[in-house]
UniProtKB/TrEMBL annotation:
It comes from Equus asinus (Donkey). This is RUN and FYVE domain containing 2. Residues 1-111 form the RUN domain. SUPFAM superfamilies: RUN domain-like (SSF140741). The gene is RUFY2. Residues 169-203, 240-347 form a coiled coil.
Amino acid sequence: MVRKSFLSYNKTIWGPLELVEKLYPEAEEIGASVRDLPGLKTPLGRARAWLRLALMQKKMADYLRCLIIQRDLLSEFYEYHALMMEEEGAVIVGLLVGLNVIDANLCVKGEDLDSQVGVIDFSMYLKNEEDIGNKERNVQIAAILDQKNYVEELNRQLNSTVSSLHSRVDSLEKSNTKLIEELAIAKNNIIKLQEENHQLRSENKLILMKTQQHLEVTKVDVEAELQTYKHSRQGLDDMYNEARRQLRDESQLRQDVENELAVQVSMKHEIELAMKLLEKDIHEKQDTLIGLRQQLEEVKAINIEMYQKLQGSEDGLKEKNEIIARLEEKTNKITAAMRQLEQSDNDLLTQTRTIALSLVKCASSDTQDQYKLVKDISF
């Protein structure tokens, strides 16, 4: 299988750096920041930005330590003989702890991290051999000072860890003495509890004997009470069945009375409807009487006119007299018919009123009796 440098084929350094987010949750912020950066198109540029951010956070050694522990995951990206897969990888990660001393402030935005970094030629700034020697000496002094600062920082960290360990040891010794005292107290409590347990067992035996005797006595009493309860229960069942039968009969009677009451109410509604129809018929007859009276008045007016014409005319006096007589006869007949109709309407109205009053009284008396009967049944 074809390989590329110390990484597997078709893999980049950005792949293992992405795994750090899963192994170390605090690295998710760096990964999100790198993905949000504009202008980064290649995985190599993302890897360079990630390394710069890790240096500024002073956690590069921690992130890579989490990554190098999971060698089964690194096998997907590195050859088995790669540096990260060997023991030297752990040594390199341990040396990276020294970078935490440096306060890095690196530019990430606006940098061309995708392209290859070029080599800076400083030969144009060199003047002579003495300057070269002084510069080398300054570089050595700077390296020595950096090493001194690094050693002092490590010494400070070690002193802080030693002091914290001393404090932990003191707290552990104090807690140990407390635990020993508590253990002695617990042993004394256990001895006391064992003695109390022995006394309680002896008392429990005595209580058990007394309770057995008391149970035998109560068993006899319970059997006697059970017999009396059975006899009383039988009498109560008979009384309950009789009361239930009476309740069923009374409920049936109440249902019949309610049905009769509903029939009486329906009859009352029918009587009221008949009364309304009779009143309507009476009103119609009164209207016909009014029309007949109007016709009578018209006939009377015609009769008066004819009478006046008869007085004025001499030639048709006899014919007009006959016509007048006929008209008078007709008027008399009409008046007699009107009187008969009025008399018959009055008689019919009085009869309907008496019938309606009698029916209403009967219905009210029946409803009162039924209400009293229902009330007595409910009581």
